[in-house]
């Protein structure tokens, strides 16, 4: 549970966030006392239906960041995870749907209040509606719509309170908000809203609770290998826990089919759920929502797996939305929402058409919380994937040295030892880099080593054509490792292949080839020893090589010493140069030690 927050004070956080939204949109206004963010009412013939929503804060960008043209007219904010009062809601209605001074009439085309189905919200927003209904001008001009899209809680457990309102509510905001912006009357807006609310299904997954600023840090309720299905956006417990293996949560590919089954199962298939009837070949909108603590990288992977599982169910995805729409502060997790679209042949007068719903969803809105929507359905991924051809490998007219079978076998064994050693050293390298850098060094080298081993097993790397072998290794470094270290390794091994090819002897001149590779590497990096980088042991090894002898033991020792010398050294290149305090926390540079591990494995012929 992440319990540190960068704020001024918990007591001022909500109002400061609302004031910040005013900076983003100069057309908005804020009633600070009532914590109502709104678009001001303007008299005239083009009056539009007003949409009001709200609830406890902590679900940003919902609800206030959706106030803007083509979306909401006003949002009422309570304290974190606490409903606003009925008085606040009444103030919001009066701001966007004002009464005339004689109280005999009200300006505007009516107001639709949209509320997530939580007890406090329903009570306080309902209280405001009923209080306003005492004025005849508001009796039929203010409508109330509750959204309950959560499918995780079974029927036998929801008793009187009903299902919770979750992120699907945001789709309702957008569709009805755009409809109101187009001039539809209150009945039309309400009817489309009722259709959307009745055809939403949402389920959430989290790896832990969120933390409310200003409160004590709670105890983590889930183990490192657990996730909870159906956890609420106010930290309510879920309905199902799933456990992975090896101390990690289960992979998304295992989780997703179960989630989609919970979303789409009919009541015949699951008597406890089956809230929306998703018949085979039904058209749907998919919304993948970040609950606050998930990285965009992970969220994109979630959207891919979700689309796969939905398609396998026979449903047709017409739109995909992926982003942060309704959070639970910093909860590490996501929610999935499916909106079942009307049949394509929906007759006029029997509810909204599919084209109408999609058009309302696709139209851009001037609200900071609303992201980009493509306006087109996804296509088969196979039509968008372009494969890189490996047929364009570098060729040369010069014939490289051809080692005999025994020599070739020794080369393969040496490469294998180096790869195995890097994989074995991954935890230690990762620990070192967590202290000294961004923590990815061990995993990066492990990925490269695994890639090389895969090519060895498939005989794409052999010891008979050394230049081709090192070109292949360079390709693995570029593709599997990436980043700065991947680039450095790739350049070095590519240049090493060049150096071997340029040999005029029938045997490999390793000192000459390695010097050539190091010289080429230095044309693309400014790092020079001592720099606290992988260059330090690499340079020590190459520059100490004998020119004519094949015994390199002293050079291997020099590399080990250079790697160890990086402990506490001031960084002159790489990301570590931006750090402060003791360099790397007193650790060796993980990249340098990775080179030392590799070279030591090559030297150690006794270890297989």
TrEMBL record:
Residues that hold substrate according to the record: 56-59, 116, 121
GO terms for biological process, alphabetical: glycerol catabolic process
Alphabetically ordered keywords of this record: ATP-binding, Glycerol metabolism, Kinase, Nucleotide-binding, Transferase
GO CC terms: cytosol
Gene3D superfamilies xref list: 1.25.40.340, Dihydroxyacetone kinase, domain 1, Dihydroxyacetone kinase, domain 2
Its biological purpose: Catalyzes both the phosphorylation of dihydroxyacetone and of glyceraldehyde.
Protein name: Dak1 domain-containing protein
Organism: Lentinula aciculospora
Top-level taxonomy: Eukaryota, Fungi, Dikarya, Basidiomycota, Agaricomycotina
């Amino acid at each position: 549970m992440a319990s540190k927050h960068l704020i001024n004070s918990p007591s001022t956080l909500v109002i400061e966030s609302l004031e910040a939204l005013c900076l983003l949109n100069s057309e908005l206004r804020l009633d600070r006392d009532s914590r109502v963010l709104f678009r001001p009412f303007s008299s005239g013939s083009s009056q539009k239906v007003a949409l009001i929503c709200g609830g406890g804060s902590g679900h940003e960008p919902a609800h206030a960041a959706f106030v803007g043209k083509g979306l909401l007219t006003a949002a009422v904010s309570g304290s974190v995870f606490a409903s606003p009062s009925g008085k606040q809601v009444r103030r919001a209605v009066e701001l966007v749907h004002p009464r005339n001074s004689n109280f005999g009439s009200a300006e505007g085309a009516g107001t639709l209040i949209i509320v997530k189905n939580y007890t406090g919200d329903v009570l306080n927003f309902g209280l405001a509606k009923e209080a306003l209904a005492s004025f005849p001008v508001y009796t039929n001009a203010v409508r109330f719509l509750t959204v309950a899209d959560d499918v995780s809680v079974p029927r036998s457990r929801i008793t009187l309170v009903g299902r919770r309102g979750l992120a699907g509510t945001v789709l309702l905001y957008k569709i009805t908000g755009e409809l109101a912006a187009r001039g539809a009357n209150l009945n039309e807006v309400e009817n489309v809203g009722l259709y959307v609310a009745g055809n939403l299904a949402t389920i959430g997954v989290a790896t832990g609770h969120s933390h409310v600023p200003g409160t004590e840090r709670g105890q983590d309720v889930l183990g490192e290998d657990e996730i909870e299905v159906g956890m609420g956006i106010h930290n309510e417990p879920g309905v199902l826990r799933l456990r992975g293996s090896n101390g990690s949560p289960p992979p998304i590919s295992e989780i997703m089919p179960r989630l989609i089954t919970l979303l789409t199962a009919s009541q015949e298939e699951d008597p406890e759920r089956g809230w929306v009837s998703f018949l085979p070949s039904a058209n749907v909108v998919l919304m993948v929502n970040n609950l606050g603590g998930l990285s965009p990288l992970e969220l994109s992977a979630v959207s891919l797996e979700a689309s796969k599982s939905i398609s396998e169910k026979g449903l047709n995805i017409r739109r995909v939305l992926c982003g942060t729409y309704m959070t639970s502060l910093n909860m590490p997790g996501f929610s999935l929402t499916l909106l079942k679209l009307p049949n394509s042949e929906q007759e006029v007068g029997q509810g909204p058409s599919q084209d109408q719903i999609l058009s309302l969803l696709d139209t851009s809105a001037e609200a900071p919380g609303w992201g980009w929507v493509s306006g087109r359905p996804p296509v088969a991924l196979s039509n968008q994937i372009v494969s890189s051809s490996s047929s364009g490998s570098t060729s040369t007219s010069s014939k490289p040295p051809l080692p005999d079978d025994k020599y070739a076998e020794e080369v393969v064994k040496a490469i294998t030892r180096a790869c195995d050693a890097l994989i074995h050293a991954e935890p230690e390298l990762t620990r070192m880099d967590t202290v000294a850098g961004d923590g990815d060094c061990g995993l990066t080298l492990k990925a490269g080593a695994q890639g090389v081993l895969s090519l060895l097993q498939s005989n794409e790397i052999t010891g008979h054509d050394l230049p081709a072998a090192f070109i292949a290794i360079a390709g693995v470094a570029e593709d599997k490792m990436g980043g700065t270290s991947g680039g450095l390794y790739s350049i070095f091994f590519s240049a090493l292949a060049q150096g071997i090819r340029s040999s005029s002897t029938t045997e490999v001149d390793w000192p000459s080839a390695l010097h050539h590779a190091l010289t080429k590497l230095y044309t693309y990096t400014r790092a020079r020893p001592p720099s606290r980088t992988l260059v330090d042991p690499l340079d020590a090894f190459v520059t100490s090589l004998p020119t004519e002898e094949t015994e390199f033991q002293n050079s291997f020792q020099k590399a080990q010493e250079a790697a160890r010398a990086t402990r506490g050294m001031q960084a002159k290149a790489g990301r570590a140069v931006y750090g402060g305090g003791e360099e790397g926390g007193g650790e060796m540079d993980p990249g340098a030690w990775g080179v030392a591990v590799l070279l030591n494995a090559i030297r150690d012929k006794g270890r297989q």
